[in-house]
Amino acid sequence: MAYAAMKPTKAVCADLVRGAKDKRLITKGLVRMPTKVLKITTRKAQGTNEWLIFSADVVKQISSITIEPGVEVEVTIADS
Question: pTM, whole model, 2 decimals?
Answer without folding.
Answer: 0.34
